[in-house]
Amino acid sequence: MIYLSKENLRDRIYACWIGKNIGGTLGTPYEGTQELLDISGFASKAGEPLPNDDLDLQLVWLRAVNDLGPDAINSKVLGEYWMSFINPNWNEYGVCKSNMRQGILPPMSGEYNNKLWRDSNGAWIRTEVWACLYPAMPEKAIRLAFEDASVDHGFGEGTYAAIFVAAVESAAFVVKDFNQLLDIGLSKIPDDCRVARAIKLVRKAYADGIDWKTCREMIVKDSEDLGWFQAPANVAYVVLGLLYGECDFKKSMILAVNCGDDTDCTGATLGSILGIKDGMNGIPKDWMAYIGEGIKSICLTNGHGFYPEDCTVLTDCILNLLPVTLRQNQSQILLNLARPHRADYRGVCLADKEDLTELNVDEFYGNEFAMSLANRKPYSYIIEGVIADVMVEFDDKPQITAGGTISGVITVTNKPNFPEQKQYSLRYLCPEGWTVESPLTAYSYLNPRDQKYRYNKVPFTIHAGEHVNAVNNIILEVTSPGRPTQILVPIQVMG
Known about the structure:
Elements: E1 2-5, H1 6-27, H2 53-68, H3 75-85, H4 91-101, H5 128-133, H6 138-153, H7 157-171, H8 178-187, H9 194-207, H10 212-222, H11 231-244, H12 249-258, H13 263-278, H14 285-291, H15 311-335, E2 348-351, H16 368-374, E3 380-384, E4 388-394, E5 405-414, E6 422-429, E7 435-437, E8 441-444, E9 455-463, E10 471-479, E11 487-494
Parallel strand pairs: 1-2
Antiparallel strand pairs: 3-4, 4-5, 5-9, 6-8, 6-10, 7-9, 10-11
Helix pairs in contact: 1-13, 1-15, 2-15, 3-6, 6-7, 7-8, 7-13, 9-10, 9-11, 10-11, 11-12, 11-13, 12-13
């Protein structure tokens, strides 16, 4: 068990949001700039921050956690909050909302017809809420970051970027060495993804003594095929600011923004990381005084209740939830439930005095989650049931023509709190003239502590009839004899 001081946590969470506001305000006037910049400070009016979607969207996620509790949060829940509380329809935000209006469930809402934006910046810029709700618990933070990011980025580089940043931010509550933080973040994403490649490029350039402007040009060259406003290059600019600025707040922020591109995002995220790492002692007092602590919204739907209007209230809202998010972890330890990741065994507790003597940073590393994503088909989603979860994976893009076929796999996975062996019956309810070719029985096995014995994969092939709509709905009914709860799984196929 490690004990985090309430006072220190308040300081670091508050500094996270102040740093976020400072960086967003510093960078917003230059958003989209493709040339190298030469700024030295703010270009906005003194006395207030500029509005920024990087922070706005996280107020909605915080509302969802407060409304439903952290255990209820998944990509489908966040998708519904997108539809009710978030205005913009630009870029990946517009793609995911358009897909969800058609009935395409997250995370497929971030994958389907989203080639242009699935690798972009909309998700890694909104990870602080998960890190602050799970300080020093990166495994928890990255799982929620994935549920969040996948709504509008599917399994693209934008999602890997969010996982990387969430891990760094969560670990930064107790790890101060920035190279260790980068190592922890990289351990959570595939070694061969483009985000990892861009980060490693920066680290090597810095280690080799290459100047920051040359390093920036190397990043631009490396991402030429992806274009501007994409996650690999912009996360690399954050890392450039961190390394070449040597964690000096002003120097680091100016370097990151001077790289250009999505400057409000790079500045805001770097400000958050430094705020968490160093607390308010690391925030320049003159810069904080320049913007104050207010929050200016740009993306939230008006008329739907209260949102924090300044960083103090936002910090208090998160602190009020910490006894819930941290207590969950402690209860899992006390009940000795099987957990697939060592980091979940370690307790994090609120206390009046900080005690990190039992902290083992080695537990922060690990690529199990990244591997589970790499082994999953991109056109997929999970429906959570009471006794089991059902994952639908399409072998290809879920589109079909009259008389055509599309195949995939259904995976039924036992919930660990219902460990006994079970048989499941599968029944498909199809549009008229459509059929599904699939085994009608799935099994789950007795030992829930070993992943390979917890699930059963069942292939399926959908045969379309003569009539195909723009959106075609099949319902898979999953039942277990002797159990009262059925799981209804919607399967959408586009015409």
